[in-house]
Amino acid sequence: MSEIIRLSAADLAAKLAAGEVSSMEATQAHLDRIAAVDGDVHAFLHVSDTALQAAADIDRRRAAGESLGELAGVPLAVKDVLVTTDMPSTSGSKILEGYMSPYDATVVARSRAAGLIPLGKTNMDEFAMGSSTEHSAYGPTRNPWDLDRIPGGSGGGSAAAVAAFEAPLALGSDTGGSIRQPAHVTGTVGMKPTYGGVSRYGAIALASSLDQVGPVSRTVLDSALLHDVIGGHDPNDATSLTDRWPSFAAAAREGASGQVLKGLKVGVIRELPDSGFQAGVSASFRAALATMEAQGAEIVEISAPHFEYGVAAYYLILPAEASSNLAKFDSVRFGLRVDVPGGTVEDVMAATRDAGFGDEVKRRVILGTYALSAGYYDAYYGSAQKVRTLIQRDFDTAFAQVDVIATPSAPTTAFRLGEKIDDPLQMYLNDVTTIPVNLAGVPGISIPSGLAAEDGLPVGIQFIAPAREDARLYRVGAAVEALLLDEWGEPLLAKAPVLGGAR
Description:
Blueprint: H1 3-6, H2 9-18, H3 23-41, E1 44-47, H4 51-63, E2 75-79, H5 106-113, E3 117-122, H6 156-163, E4 169-173, H7 180-186, E5 189-192, E6 213-217, H8 220-230, H9 248-257, E7 265-269, H10 279-294, E8 298-302, H11 310-325, H12 345-356, H13 359-372, H14 378-399, E9 404-408, H15 424-429, H16 435-440, E10 444-451, E11 458-464, H17 470-488
Parallel strand pairs: 2-3, 2-4, 7-8, 7-9
Antiparallel strand pairs: 1-3, 4-6, 5-6, 5-10, 9-11, 10-11
Helix pairs in contact: 3-4, 8-9, 9-17, 11-13, 11-14
């Protein structure tokens, strides 16, 4: 395996700036890696045919003495939920097969402007509906730790690309855990920013009050560096915050080198019993907490009594918003059209949506439409929004007592492909610890915390902070990452037995 693709984004950026590596070399190395392993992993739906041209332009600008961003020349994978002008944007659905957007998503445009090199578009559950990337219309992505297992979802393609060393960085989206849960099962880092902290303009909408774009990486610092590029106010996004954000990279560097954990109050939720989690997940979580406590952190038991209703509320709010957002795919304006000879517009629309949407999308659209229908709105959607408010109040109460909240990032390690595909409820329960973060609009980060004893697969620990305190998560995440790396003696991905590891 090329030494270049084993570098973190920060280390690669330093070598690029020093002239030790060219962007052309770095980009070619990652394209070669994709060619070598993606037939097995299937992380990418489309590989860019302009990446080397973009890399050559960065090298030319650097040679001319132009001032460039810190990540200039570093390759980037892009989740297919984000529209791009030079590659198809399908959101993992047949209904958008081959669709070319007339504009770039804001986060893509900002990445290009900062000199990052988009390598391609990554696979995902159709319209981000799923926890395993098995609901992609273009076939499942496989976990680089074990090709018979799922890479998480909906952003399994981005996580798998980073874990398999096909890209040092990726863009993802997180509606109920779609960045953090894949990070948990692939041994990567996934950050869900504060709602409104990163523009959603150009992200194909699933549930507009829940969706959030964020970074995927192999280290906390790498995520922070990418977050610095894509974050900030965007006038094209009506939900975008106007805050001036601190440097997240500076926060991560402070966490890795300072005494951040001393005196830190870490909340552990009383209502998340061990009985609901795989033994290895619980053991890894407790071990990480013990490591933090040994460095001076204070572990505080807190109560969040309404968290147990989060999954139920989420699976009313999300389908309701999805049924509205997906109404635009009507065969008239863009995307797939199935002709019905002699049929009406309604006939064509029905035939197109039947052929273009997969089973999971149809299931959620039907559920959401029902929840919004006359006579049921208050009983279902209205009640779910009330539960959402109660969960937000639980967070407010908790953060009056603690600095961050810690949970396992997901209840189990990566399950086998096909194991839960026919059991939607079990699939939905996989997001039990991540969903409340989206319902409340607060930031959450998942970092690797070890390997589960029973199957040797990666496990993540999630940290949650109050809204707008994303920098706090980077400080804490980097501090814990550094401590665990000292314990392991090598990065967790170096232990991967198949495609992900460096061995």
